[in-house]
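*** Residues and shapes ***
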Amino acid sequence: MTGRPAADFPAKPTPTGATVVPRPFAEEDAPTMAAILRDPEVLLPTGSAGAPPVPDERLRSWYAGRRTGRTRPDTP
């Protein structure tokens, strides 16, 4: 116990800027994320370097389900 209140993910602010508005992941993000997740520079700090790539269908399925996960910090 750190003495801090528990995070209330569903009640979070949405920062906006002139060129970006964060949003939850969606199924259509899977191809872009697949390319990002195959970049060795991205994999190295995650400890995933050398691991086999995640199949495209699994990525598509995972990103498609992000809008329904109420405890996820990346969902509204």
Observations:
- The chain has a mean pLDDT of 77.
- Residues 11 and 61 are 25 Å apart (CA to CA).
- Residues 56-64 form the longest helix (9 residues).
